[in-house]
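Agenda item 2: flavin mononucleotide complex prediction
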Amino acid sequence: MEFTELIKERYSVRGYKPDPIEDEKLLEVLEAARLAPTAANLQPFQLIVVHTEGRKEELRRIYKRDWFLQAPLIIVACGIPSKAWVRRDESNYGVVDVAIVMDHIILAAANLGLGTCWIGAFDPQATREILKLPEGVDPIVMTPLGYPDAPSKPKERKALDELVRYENW
Ligand SMILES: Cc1cc2nc3c(=O)[nH]c(=O)nc-3n(C[C@H](O)[C@H](O)[C@H](O)COP(=O)(O)O)c2cc1C
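Presented output:
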């Protein structure tokens, strides 16, 4: 899809068909994640691809929405802060890196006709337990990945002049 069209077409999909995702499509999505830029190219992230089939009850503890479990896959993007670039004022850029990785995933998926929805409101402790995350690995954001079964809504966004200033504040 043409890029401008792609960013207009992408939306948060909150309903999925159970149809499986072709291996080539999943690989294309993961490859887009791999190519994402990260601060100092440190790539301080790990992705966990989770099949929902047969695990719905335990996965419900992570995020309690029926549509979350309808998709055949969930991709969980984790950060490893100890491996991320840290600015002189001690700002750790790991979360920024993971967000960029997830945006690549989400746009690549939309380009293939697949639906996603950023999920930040998950239960981090349940995620740690169920996915057996080791110390030092933080779940940052996740998304279901599947064929959409819910319509888009009109985009509600602030006007550009409410969001952009020129030259200084
Ligand atoms: C960092 C982040 C976290 C989000 N967390 C959730 C979430 O936990 N649950 C949810 O339903 N949507 C979540 N969203 C989706 C937003 O609500 C959605 O992107 C926004 O309302 C704009 O709608 P659109 O994605 O359809 O354009 C999140 C989005 C972002 C960027």
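Discussion summary: The beta strands are 45-51, 73-79, 138-145.
Owner for follow-up: CH.
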